[in-house]
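So, could you explain the following?
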Amino acid sequence: MGHRPGVSAKKQSGEDARRWPGSAHEARRFILDELPGGSPVEGLAIDGERFGAGEAPPELVVPELIEPKPFRAIRVAEPKSVRGQSGFAGFLDGTQKLELVNHEDGISIVWATVSAAIRARVGRRMVAWGGRPPTVIGSFYFPFRYVSGLRGEFRNHPRVVDTAAANEDGKFPSRHPAALIEAAVKRVQQDREKIERELAEAWCASEKSALYVDGSITSSRIASSSAIAVGVIKSHRRLYGEGDAFQVLVTLKAGERTSIFRVAPERRNPVASWYLRLRSGAGHDALFGLVRVEASLSDDISSRADEISRWILAEGSPLALPDGRWDKMAYGIRDTEEFLRAIS
């Protein structure tokens, strides 16, 4: 588990007795001592979505079916009929906040905080899961190669991340400011994924009830093979709906799922997956209320998919307003995000 902001740098690195920053404001002041020749930047947040972090363009993919052909819509339940019938006992989500705090000769120094937590349902209340505390980590991200005059103690600190390491071919990233920001965003996303994965695996090791994970579970061998971890994906850059499957996908009605297909991303773990329409898309765009669900592969995956889908439909009430993603977001995930905003 990572260190919490506010713990002294001496305790974290054994070398620097100054207090490690706990916020972007403190990070901005801290870095002035490390880079006296740099220029502080005030209040410039970095939009990870805008910079893309190497995100692949939208694409359609032919689904690798697990259930018998053809790819079709399967009625699961009327959303209103399953209210209060969810089997999820925990909700896992993470957040990331990035801010440009300094630059030296045009090279950006980024401070980012990543956080993750599981909120458990106890009766009708949401509480912090007692199995493992939430994780909040604040770190500096910048390319060592292009920044001069760094002290060894700072460079070697576990919360200082080099975003300009050579790739497998020995090539270093471009000095282009946008390319370096993208590299920083990508590393931040990797760090966030790591702490989310650790929490998911801790739940799978100690609990018996289902965990609702906001996002994919394919990065974890443990979570992707567990019967109690369920990933729910709200964004659809890659859409498993090429060919005849596309028409089935975009015309799904509320309470319907698609046939189950296998997802096996490169360098990740395979899972069973299907799409589920949470709310009617009438009068909205084609992806309104549409989520993609991931669960472990098993012989009984068809019956499990129906049950899991009913649970996800049940989590649609109450509405996750005023969040703009309310059509796809479970209220338990909104509660987790609000909790993380309060502690990070």
